[in-house]
Amino acid sequence: MWKSDKWQDYELIDCGGGERLERWGRYILVRPDPQAIWTTPRRNPLWRKANARYARSSSGGGAWEKKAVPDHWQIGYGPLTFNIKPMNFKHTGIFPEQAANWDWAGDLIRNAKRPISVLNLFAYTGGATVSCAAAGASVCHVDAARGMVSWARENAKSSGLEDAPIRYIVDDCGKFVEREIRRGRKYDAVIMDPPSYGRGPSGEVWRLEENLYPFVELVSQVLSDEPLFFLINSYTTGLAPSVLTYILETLVSSRHGGHTVSDELGLSVTETGLVLPAGASGRWTAR
Fold first, then answer.
1. 94: closest CA among 68, 74, 121, 109?
2. Number of neighbours of residue 183 by Cβ within 10 angstroms
3. How far apart are CA 79 and CA 87, in angstroms?
4. Distance (Å, rounded) from C-alpha 195 to C-alpha 130?
5. Three-state SS for 84?
6. C-alpha to C-alpha distance for 269 and 21, rounded to whole angstroms
7. Sheet strand arrangement including 10-16
8. Residue 237 per-residue DSSP state
9. Which of 73, 121, 125, 230 could, after both became Cys, cross-link 192 (CB 3.0–4.6 A)?
10. How many Å apart are CA 3 and CA 129, to the nearest integer?
């Protein structure tokens, strides 16, 4: 398991009973987590003193029960600064387990000793974007949600990267890639974090289990002749890490060689020493 264990401003204090107890900078949040199905004694008083809690509704969805939490605040990860904003469906704008992938990609870019261009698809608020840009890459950041792209710009500015070579694109990722293929544009690295389910701008239905393989096949066509890495994240489905390996080996290694490793991502739990699973990633590298 790849653990994101270098955080200073984030901490998974405890989890169990379907919830997480987390520290985000100076604020304590309680959020649902479908993986934390075991019980915990909840001896830590912060369970009762949390600044905000996201409560599920019996009719679906849920809402934040806020006590003393601002609309937004900042946390740091190394040289990066992220803007945290509790929003609908329990999210805060950052998936802290992805820090393991940020570090991995950043190290590859810094050690490449050549200019690297990165295509970040379903790029959300830009955690991977700013990490790659900070390592020296040029990044094309693509997401269909205008608000998420604006948030990514904020994170880049807060991290001192407002002048970094980042292209921000508000578009359907599939349609954008198809245009890039027609333009003949190539990228040295690809990052994608596709949703489990979604709808395109014309009502197209996206189901990860059905669409991931043909989508990776499409995206592989924009890889340069000397690609550096290809990263696939899968958070909300039951896809085994080995499935991600098979996809990358079939579609990327068959053309470019290289090596694929896939595993779970995890966050260490301070109270218990357990590691909370937080999805899986497949990592292809040229060497």
1. 74
2. 9
3. 25
4. 21
5. strand
6. 9
7. 10-16, 19-24, 27-32, 52-56, 62-66
8. S
9. 121
10. 20
SS3 content of the chain, % helix, strand, coil (to 5): 30, 35, 35
Per residue in 77-134, pLDDT (tens digit) is 999 999 999 988 899 999 999 999 999 999 999 999 999 999 999 999 999 999 999 9
Per the document, the length of the chain is 287
Residue type, 51: N
Q: ∠ at Cα 84 (79, 90), nearest 5°?
A: 135
Tokens of 21: 């107890």
**Over 120-189, what HEC string results?**
EECCCCCHHHHHHHHCCCEEEEEECCHHHHHHHHHHHHHCCCCCCCEEEEECCHHHHHHHHHHHCCCECE
Both tokens assigned to 252: 């990327």
Tokens of 206: 């996206």
Token match 């479908």: residue? 34
pTM: 0.94
**Could you tell me the two tokens for 251?**
């579609």
Calpha distance 3→40 (Å, rounded): 21
Q: In what order do the strands lie in the sheet with 2-3?
A: 2-3, 259-268, 275-285, 229-234, 189-192, 117-121, 138-143, 166-170
Q: Copy the structure tokens of residue 264.
A: 């779970």
